[in-house]
């Protein structure tokens, strides 16, 4: 079964746990909310993905089945690791949000 | 579908011309309605669905989704519910309330037709709080007992998002009038967990007429690919909103004129606060149809047209709109809650006389940050408007960047 990460936006509180546990698919925007890579979760990442789903403090992260031919292009969403002209609090791995 | 009316008119609908929904000389009571349209005879569900499909009727609430597809999706479920959506949260729109106050029985007929087509067991009408609620209640009382399904009337809060499909379901179910995260869609699980049809009240009015007069009649107005008429709300600087009914494909300048907006316009916002701008030249040559408007990124939507005169600045108007949209956020999702106020600040900067040098790039960045990252389409609609501002008014943006503005003060200096 091919799956990708998905988020319940109204439930997400931007705690960032998911990005710590699955950085290969989840980065954070300047406000701490998840930017999801729609690339399917490969077998080597499945354990980490399920960890991230279980660890979300608000149970907002889930794994969504991908139908054949449904692969989306990666949206150009600016994250904390991409250069931006906006002033924002710098984020370092290991910092508490 | 053959005609089923027993009215005193010709019975084919031709007596209506393009004044189909809004009678120019009739009162809103039941007797006048029956005199104009005759009685609605029940039509079997499958004939209704085929007829609606043939008519090409699309939703009039903004999204223009084919009605037969929505009806069929709900009809496939168990014990569905039908809801007429008259929330009309868009501040520049008045067509739904006008329709409900001038022709409530058309909407109520349409609700019964939708119930028949879907096999619904429950029917509700969700109406913007205010005088329209009382008008609908009077109409419901006039029909007492005559309808197959009793209609429950629910007042809708006057907020921008209260008419969003899942917000409608949530409010009717006793919750907040705020969007609900997807999935499942409301046509699978809505009011009381039942498959729910949420249909704009104008769409229901057209549906009632299609059931009476047939698909060929419906297609006699409009264009081959966009048949029928639609209600539009026209407004300008003075703040007065005028509701008109026009055929799809009518030149925009004629729609504006019918709504009291004459002469050349600086710019026209088509589709309301989640819509797209047209320059004055475009508004002067294009027609109100998806086909004509598509190259500009605009669409007829729910027929909201805001016309600016030469003495108004589209950047200032847009900045105020984006501020309103930011204030209208349901505040449930981080990207919208954070991103829309930031967008409003950026638009305010661009609309001022000393915009910050990064404001334009920041606006573009913010649109990418909020688009598609929320429980509903509120951020997406805001992004659409902002992108339209940035791409339609380069000269205006440039003028402001140099401390000026292209608006021409009117005699007397009034804006």
Question: Explain this structure to me?
Answer:
The complex is a heterodimer of chains A (97) and B (415). Chain A is α+β, with helices and mostly antiparallel strands. Chain A is 15% helix and 16% strand. Chain A has helices at residues 17-21, 46-55; strands at 3-7, 26-28, 34-36, 61-65. In chain A, strand 2 (26-28) and strand 3 form a beta hairpin. Chain A is globular. Residues 83-97 of chain A have low confidence and may be disordered. With 415 residues, chain B is of the alpha/beta class. Chain B has 17 helices and nine strands. Chain B has helices at 30-37, 45-55, 67-75, 95-102, 104-118, 131-142, 165-172, 201-213, 215-219, 252-258, 280-285, 290-293, 314-327, 334-351, 359-370, 378-392, 394-401; strands spanning 81-86, 122-128, 151-156, 196-200, 229-235, 241-247, 267-270, 276-279, 304-308. In chain B, a hairpin with a 5-residue loop joins strand 5 and strand 6. The radius of gyration of chain B is 22 Å and the shape is globular. Residues 1-10 of chain B have low confidence and may be disordered. The A-B interface holds A 8-14, 29-33, 35, 75-78, 84-86 and B 179-181, 332-335, 338-339, 358, 361-362, 365, 368-369, 371-375.
């Amino acid at each position: 079964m091919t799956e990708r990460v998905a988020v319940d936006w109204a439930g997400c509180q931007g705690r960032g746990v998911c990005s710590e546990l699955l950085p290969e698919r989840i980065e954070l925007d300047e406000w701490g909310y998840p930017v999801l890579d729609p690339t399917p979760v490969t077998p080597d990442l499945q354990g980490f993905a399920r960890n991230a789903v279980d660890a979300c403090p608000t149970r907002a992260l889930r794994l969504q089945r991908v139908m054949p031919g449904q692969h989306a292009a990666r949206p150009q969403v600016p994250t904390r690791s991409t250069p931006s002209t906006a002033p924002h609090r710098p984020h370092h791995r290991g910092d508490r949000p | 579908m053959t005609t089923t009316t027993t009215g005193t008119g010709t019975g084919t609908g031709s007596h209506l011309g393009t004044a189909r929904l809004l009678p120019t000389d009739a009162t809103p009571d039941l007797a006048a309605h029956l005199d104009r349209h005759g009685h609605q005879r029940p039509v079997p569900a499958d004939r209704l669905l085929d007829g609606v499909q043939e008519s090409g009727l699309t939703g009039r609430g903004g999204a223009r989704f084919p009605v037969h597809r929505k009806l069929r999706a709900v009809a496939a479920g168990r014990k569905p519910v039908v809801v007429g959506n008259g929330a009309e949260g868009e501040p520049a729109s008045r067509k739904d309330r006008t329709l409900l106050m001038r022709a409530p029985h058309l909407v109520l007929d349409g609700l019964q037709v939708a119930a028949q087509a879907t096999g619904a067991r429950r029917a509700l009408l969700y109406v913007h709080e205010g005088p329209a609620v009382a008008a609908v209640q009077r109409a419901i009382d006039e029909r007492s007992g005559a309808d197959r399904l009793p209609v429950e009337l629910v007042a809708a809060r006057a907020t921008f998002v209260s008419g969003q499909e899942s917000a409608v379901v949530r409010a009717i179910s006793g919750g907040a009038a705020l969007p609900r995260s997807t999935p499942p869609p409301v046509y699978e699980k809505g009011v009381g967990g039942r498959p729910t049809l949420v249909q704009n009240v104008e769409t229901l009015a057209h549906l009632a007429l299609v059931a009476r007069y047939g698909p060929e009649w419906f297609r006699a107005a409009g264009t081959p690919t966009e048949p029928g008429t639609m209600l539009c709300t026209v407004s300008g600087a003075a703040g007065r909103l005028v509701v008109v009914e026009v055929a799809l494909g009518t030149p925009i300048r004629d729609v504006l004129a019918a709504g009291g907006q004459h002469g050349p316009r600086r710019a026209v916002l088509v589709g309301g606060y989640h819509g797209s701008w047209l320059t004055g030249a475009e508004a002067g040559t294009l027609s109100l149809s998806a086909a004509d408007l598509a190259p500009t990124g605009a669409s007829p939507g729910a027929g909201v047209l805001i016309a600016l005169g030469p003495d108004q600045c589209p950047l200032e108007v847009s900045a105020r709109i984006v501020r309103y949209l930011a204030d209208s956020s349901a505040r449930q999702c981080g990207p919208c809650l954070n991103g829309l106020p930031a967008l409003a600040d950026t638009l305010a900067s661009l609309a001022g006389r000393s915009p910050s040098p990064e404001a334009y790039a920041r606006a573009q960045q913010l649109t990418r940050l909020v688009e598609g990252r929320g429980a509903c389409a509120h951020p997406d609609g805001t992004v659409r408007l902002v992108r339209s501002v940035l791409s339609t008014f380069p000269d205006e943006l440039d003028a402001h960047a140099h401390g000026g503005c292209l608006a021409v003060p009117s005699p007397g200096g009034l804006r």
